[in-house]
Amino acid sequence: MSRFDLTPPSDAQRETLVADLSDEERRVLLQHGTEAPFCGIFLDNKREGVYTCRTCGLPLFRSSAKFDSGTGWPSFFAPFDEAHIGRIRDSSYGMIRTEIVCARCGSHLGHVFPDGPPPSHERHCLNSVSLAFTGEGEALPDRMGRGAPEGEVLAAG
């Protein structure tokens, strides 16, 4: 069980959360789009920290689980907490894939594939615009105003 409040945002909270999204963020997060490969801001990010949902701020992936998949999108072998990721069967474009969404707000993040490295053998392939980043020593975002553990400072190590 997650130590974060996974209660979905109310309609009013959702309106506030999506108000500052760019057109591209709206297209990807809310309309299940995909950003172009090899252009996302987090593709080559090497900083230590946590990747969070751009919409609601829920921690999604640790930098320690990031790897270079060569696909053009940030890729991770394991989520921050499995409870933070929703998995949905996606049969669009003539393919059968597993879409991953934020378990709290439902925003589209990307897809997960069974070709990642050990120990999970999963490749969570994310859109950079679906993410925000909190560096080590910085406070996690509290976009929903729910207090700790959102707002806590990420410890070194």
UniProtKB/TrEMBL annotation:
Zn(2+) binds at C53, C56, C102, C105. GO terms for molecular function: peptide-methionine (R)-S-oxide reductase activity; zinc ion binding. InterPro entries: Met_Sox_Rdtase_MsrB, Met_Sox_Rdtase_MsrB_dom, Mss4-like_sf. Binds 1 zinc ion per subunit. The zinc ion is important for the structural integrity of the protein. The active site is at C125 (nucleophile). Its EC number is 1.8.4.12. SUPFAM superfamilies: Mss4-like (SSF51316). GO terms for cellular component: cytoplasm. Residues 14-136 form the MsrB domain. Its cofactor is Zn(2+). GO terms for biological process: protein repair; response to oxidative stress. Keywords: Metal-binding, Oxidoreductase, Zinc. It catalyses: L-methionyl-[protein] + [thioredoxin]-disulfide + H2O = L-methionyl-(R)-S-oxide-[protein] + [thioredoxin]-dithiol. PANTHER family: METHIONINE SULFOXIDE REDUCTASE, METHIONINE-R-SULFOXIDE REDUCTASE B1. Belongs to the MsrB Met sulfoxide reductase family. This is Peptide methionine sulfoxide reductase MsrB. It comes from Pseudoxanthomonas indica. The gene is msrB.
